[in-house]
Design brief:
2 domains, single chain, Trna Endonuclease, Chain: A, domain 1, 4-stranded mixed sheet
Length: 328
């Protein structure tokens, strides 16, 4: 979780325009965009096209990009809100207003000021001074915190949310990255960083939303590489005839057991239906990305000219605790 660093009145008004309240789907706007103008200095920011939402997902670091890929891979995810503002004042539950939540009784968010007061941490909340419109003085205005990812998922009980907070290392949940400069007061720095994470967790706990902490080493490199390569091309298969796509999936799944190369399967289908190679490759990627074909993604590299290996570990089972509405 980060503080919103742009403290001008214009910036705060823009933040409110984007996030108060947040919009849904392709209309959602992150509080901080992954652009040179808004992303933190020296950050490895990126944008990832998410076909389901018809928009780019913004990530402010390489590890956020990895985490976003895993979130998007879960077919139970129906909404993803990255760089989401933590409201300073009471607001409805994040699901309020979504069609899937019609008729649900949803506990509200009580706001970060209320959270800080209950935790006796009001000194950790940032404020700035703003001139009154009539020029008669200045008033304090709270600066909101910004979260990393709020996931909207659905299971047999209905829709729910999970908050993901992301760092490069577990140590960053206890201390701020300071480059080579030592902290003036290390103990105070540790208390401040831990306090800010406690604020975020209680903020969402008020609405019965659990928070999951994720660090880079938790994410298998090969899985992320596979997901990235699949996502990059799979959207090109969206317009392929459903019957042809189903046949490709059926034959690819059979090839997992026979050891036939995916390329050989695709060449056969290409010749039969006069499909271009790049479209056939996109069908291959889509089949694995949409989980219409199950193969090993965590421990085996995915190549079109190498046989797929049977799935030994389902990524969504391995990381099921991260997606669960309650701790497992």
């Amino acid at each position: 979780m980060a503080k919103y660093k742009h403290k001008t009145l214009a910036r705060l008004k823009e933040l409110q325009r984007r996030q108060d309240p947040p919009k849904w789907g392709q209309d959602y706007e992150p509080a901080i965009r992954a652009t040179r103008e808004e992303a933190p200095a020296r950050s490895r920011f990126l944008q990832i096209w998410f076909e389901k939402l018809k928009r780019y997902v913004h990530a402010l670091s390489s590890v956020e990009g990895k985490v976003a890929l895993l979130a998007m891979f879960n077919q139970a995810l129906f909404e993803l809100q990255e760089e989401r503002m933590l409201a300073t004042e009471p607001r409805p539950h994040p699901l309020f207003g979504h069609p899937l939540a019609v008729g649900m009784v949803l506990p509200p968010l009580r706001g970060t000021i209320d959270v800080c007061e209950r935790l006796d941490m009001i000194e950790l909340h940032s404020w700035t001074q703003m001139e009154l419109p009539d020029g008669t003085g200045r008033v304090p205005v709270p600066i909101p915190f910004i979260g990393d990812f709020l996931l909207f998922l659905v299971d047999q009980e209905g829709p729910y949310c999970v908050n993901w907070t992301v760092k490069s290392t577990s140590e960053e949940f206890a201390r701020r990255l300071l480059d080579s400069r030592p902290a003036r007061n290390p103990d105070a720095e540790i208390n401040a960083v831990r306090g800010r994470h406690a604020i975020e967790e209680l903020y969402y706990a008020d609405a019965d939303i659990r928070t999951v902490r994720i660090v880079d080493r938790d994410l298998p490199d090969l899985l992320i590489q596979n997901l990235r390569s699949l996502l990059l091309v799979q959207h090109r298969a969206a317009q392929v005839d459903a019957g042809i796509y189903a046949e490709i999936c059926e034959r690819l799944q059979a090839s997992v057991q026979t050891g036939q190369r995916p390329l050989d399967v695709l060449l056969s289908v290409m010749h039969r239906y006069d499909i271009q190679l790049d479209v056939a490759k996109a069908c291959f990627a889509r089949a694995l990305w949409q989980r219409d074909v199950r193969a090993e993604l965590i421990d085996e590299p995915i190549f079109i000219d190498r046989p797929l290996k049977p799935q030994r570990r389902d990524p969504l089972q391995v990381f099921s605790a991260w997606f669960a509405r309650q701790p497992l």
